[in-house]
Amino acid sequence: MSKLHVNEINAKGSDNTGLSINDTGRVTTPNKIAFKVIGNAGGAAGAYVATSPIIPGTIRHNHGSGWDASTGRFTVPSGGAGLYWFHLHMGIVRITSNGGSAYPRLWVKNSVGTQLFVPYSYVQLPSSSSYSNCNITATWDMAVDDYVYVTFHGTNADYYADQSELSFEGMLMG
Question: What domains are defined for the chain?
Fold first, then answer.
């Protein structure tokens, strides 16, 4: 039986570490591409919004620097083409009349802005005291400079833009 003992695997012709293996056998990928952003609206009344596109204000992590906080877009960085996983979580709240609806959408576009994929969620609430969680999870093969962002359209509906009720995240799966 043969064993190969390594601590790092580098890209061919480069000193960039592709994989690290520590003494316990855990594998890490130092050059990963992943982001997570969450809402940062303060106070209960100040957290109800209907702005679009949705731009969560707090960056939890931005490995690979693909998230742009000024535009609310994740753009695939150089060398990052592949299969991506995305997830949006938001709370739909404050229906202000006898019912309402909301359409959060996750837009995937190529580098010139052509729509590639637009999964959405539809939430319909019957009364002014209604509340619903809304989630969109999607995977998509993306090329360098393709991008993704989230929009919101509500009729008598807002979303809660606090860290507990608004998050958007994604990562390169491979």
Answer: 1-31 (no CATH), 32-172 (2.60.120.40)
